[in-house]
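Bit of a strange request maybe. I'm writing a small parser for structure token strings and I need a real example to test against, not something I typed by hand. Could someone generate the tokens for this chain?
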Amino acid sequence: MKKYVLCCVTERTIPETFLEEIYHLLHTIGARVESLHDLHSEKLKAIDINVMISDFQDHENFKFQLMDISNRYQIDTAFMPLDESRSKKRLIVFDMDSTLIQHEVIDEMALQYGIGDQVKSITERAMNGELNFNQSLTERVSLLKGFPKEEMEKILQRLKLTPGAKELIAELKKRGFKTAIISGGFKYFAESIKTKLEIDYAFANDLAWDDRKLSGHVLTPILNAEEKARLLEELAQKEGLSLEETIAVGDGANDLPMLSKAGMGIAFHAKEKVKREAPHQLSFGPMTSILYFLGIPGNHFNEAL
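Reply from user aminoacidic:
Good idea to test on real output. This should exercise your parser:
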């Protein structure tokens, strides 16, 4: 018999009908419910359901059935082995655009430059995995040739953090976590967000400039999906950690290799393709919901408001 935990999180209250469907689903895979624990001070907002399973094989089918229930009730769930690895995470890495911040910066630049729709359509196809990331990034940046450097500060000033991002990072840093941005976006913005949130590391693509105007080129090597996964591994080694001790959070197709490599990979408010392929999904609550996934009790929703 092996121990697992199903963490369920919502800013509202978990209804009885949701629990009935969850218990039925667990029964279909031969799980025996051992206990239920509240992680939030208000009952049934964040819970751990501890179960025992003797022979669990059809992980993918179970995952999709769990996703269906989660989506219908808009309750975030994470199913994982109940062992020390859950509480021993020590490094968390984030994508930046549409993850730590509520924007795709390249789309904001294009909007400022008067070619918003043209660039946004390419961004959406890239995020869904329909286009090669290197090719799509190169194509979008070429359309921005001549973009004035002084406009970068204007865009930076209007960028909004994702709800709960600041509070999550502050709490994890208090607990000894190392933090990093690993972004396919641009270094100018990643470094600014790093400073603002007191993040330890930031990696992103660098733009080439010609007399304070964008040359239309990205400096190589391009930080793509494979490079993101490599940097996660490199950071873990630098900090003396195993990959099992890492968390990765992202929303796009180019985050999937990084999410798969991390000890806990979380698709955050992500595209459907990414949610289906990532190990875990967080689609409804603020970023502080991740604290419950780690088994950390408290009123983390209140902190995110």
